[in-house]
Amino acid sequence: MQCHYCDREADVAVEKDALKVGLCREHLRERLSELADDDALAGLQDELDIDRSDR
User: Fold this and answer.
1) Which helix (H) or strand (E) holds 22?
2) Angle CA(29)–CA(32)–CA(34) in degrees, nearest 5?
3) What is the pTM of this model?
């Protein structure tokens, strides 16, 4: 799958309601950075059960 924002191969793909979107590592980081400025990231981390100690 190709990244939604560029021609690179997607490293992550997310699907919801039959819509699937892929992101390369760079664009995933950019989107997560944008979300970090918002309270939505905390909810997303809980939903995905992300352990921040894995960095």
Assistant:
1) strand 19-23
2) 110
3) 0.62
